[in-house]
Amino acid sequence: MTVDRSTVCRMSRASRARSSTPATPTDGVEVERALAALEGAPEGQALLFASGSAAATALLLALLKPGDTVALATGAYFGTSVIMDELSRWLTHVEFDQTGPPPDGVDLVWLEAPSNPS
């Protein structure tokens, strides 16, 4: 999938999520192109997000449909379970301890490395 950002949003010259550093609308696009090239992916198949939580939310919404179930590894980043709790109208998540296989019937297995220490 290729994303044409000019059809999605209009960025100002100071559009940065975490700072007021001046940016041009093409800064992020150039980084995405470079990342895709480093990974050997076709141009347009790398996306940058303002945070890991934003990336996780986008991934969950893109891959799952209402009613799907996610097996979330115990010890995952706390914010990931918070996101899944917030999305509970659309999905169900169950935790598993990774000493065995994930529960039967799940639609997505979510692992994070490194996980939070216990």
The largest sheet, given as strand count, sense and whether it forms a barrel, is:
3 strands, parallel
Give the strand order, joined by hyphens, for the main sheet. Answer: 2-1-3
Return residue spans where pLDDT drops below 50 for at least 5 consecutive residues.
12-16
Could you tell me how far the N terminus lies from the C terminus, measured between alpha carbons in angstroms? Answer: 38 Å
Helix content: 25-40%
Query: What general outline do the C-alpha atoms trace?
Result: elongated
Q: Report the β-strand fraction as a percent range.
A: 5-15%
Number of strands: 3
Number of helices: 3
Protein architecture, described:
The protein is of the alpha/beta class and 118 residues long. The chain folds into 2 domains: 35 residues, no CATH class; 59 residues. Helices cover 29% and strands 13% of the residues. The chain has a 3-stranded parallel sheet, covered by helices on one side. β1, α3 and β2 form a beta-alpha-beta unit. The protein is elongated and about 40 Å long. It starts with 26 loop residues before the first helix and ends in an 8-residue tail after the last strand.
